[in-house]
Design brief:
globular, single chain
Length: about 120
Amino acid sequence: MLRYRKGAEPTELKPMQNTPTGSYSDLGQKEKDSIRAALARDQGWLCAYCQQRIEPDGESMDIEHWLAQAAHGEQNLNWSHMLGVCKGYFTIEGERIQHCDKSRGCAPLFLHPVEGR
């Protein structure tokens, strides 16, 4: 897993964090785009798992959560828990192979990639 220093959280994330019932699923495209851009910047445009190049868009990058959203929904807007990851699959001879966050599912992670956390 890639270790990196996390920069400032995007200002677009704050309003939803300050909403008592705010949820990651309520974020719009603009907010998610700013989160992707900040994660890609902080991680040197590399997937936090496999270090494959990522671009801050929904086509080549997903936003992963250190604590799985299904088990820790109360942390889903926590900036320090968000990671930039590749799409998590590739195809070999017509078979789709999962890796990175797609193969993780809700399993806990044992190494937090953010330095100084």
